[in-house]
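Hey, can you fold this one?
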Amino acid sequence: MRTLILRDVRDTVARAMNSCKDKQRVVDIVNQSQERLLNRPDKPVGSVVLFRICLGDSNCFTWPRPVRTIEAFAVCNTPGRIVDNLFEFIGYPNGSGLLDGSSLFSGSLLADRGTACAFDDVSASSTSPRKIALIAGNLADVGKTVTLRYIDSNGQKKYSSIDGVVQEGERLTLPAPPAYVYTSSNVATNGLYHLVKDVTEYPVLMYEVDSATLIQTKQLSAYEPSETVPIYRRSFIPGLENVNSCRGVSEDCSTNKIVTVLVKLQHVPVVVDNDPLVIGNLAAFKLMAMAIMREDANRFDEAMVLEKKARAELDGELSSYLGDGAETKLKVQSRELFGCGHSSFETAGYW
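Sure. Predicted structure:
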């Protein structure tokens, strides 16, 4: 087991490609290799991490860019159940119906809320109209553009001329900081639904602002330089406001709730030599790069063999990492929770 950065794999992948290590094609193949190796039902070593966050009473929240999915969670010290976005539509008597803040689950359930292109949503009204503002993190990004697709305060999709063609969205050009650039129209509540950003040298910050005063009312997001089409997972914990704060558990969360999560990471493209990779198996990168090269040459039989060998490397590493000493635990849920009238159990996959 090891931690790799882009610089660590350049030589090996370049040799497998019969290419110079400083070619952009090498970086492209490294990114393709990791993305494909992570898009598997299993969990390679390094792809599952444990971390915790401090939350107040907000039931719905957005996960950071590297998070692919939530595998397990607990509020304070109490583990809860994870359900998909169809759970709320099962219907009575077998389901709970649509979840809201007054739910009786009180922090014991985590429901999927799809994806979003920002950390927070615009909150507007007829008496408090809002616009979206962007600010560059550095002078190096002056002139870079961000295209926002949103619903305006009249409930209509925003259209404008972009590159001489009328199309969906509005393109904003970043001025020299500390100046901001604003949307020309007011934005409806939850109105931002898509965003396309140029690659930048520094982060780009996005805010909701009062349309009359242009004063910031809250921050909506902070986009990393390599993000071009941001998308984040969202989750909902019904009844979180009914959970007592985790006093005594941790000083840094003394007035809030601690949410501890076990997550599987997704591929985040690497750009510069110090960018970290999720997968730390150099042999798997080499074999997967060779597979992609054969695939691009329409030598599919050879590509399949090489990809299988790359996956075998990851499987062997995972088996060695887990070992035989740890006890295997199964997550279970009672069928009584779904009103089936008996207390048999069914297992849910774990690892």
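Residues 334-351 have pLDDT under 50 and may be disordered. Let me know if you want another pass with a different chain boundary.
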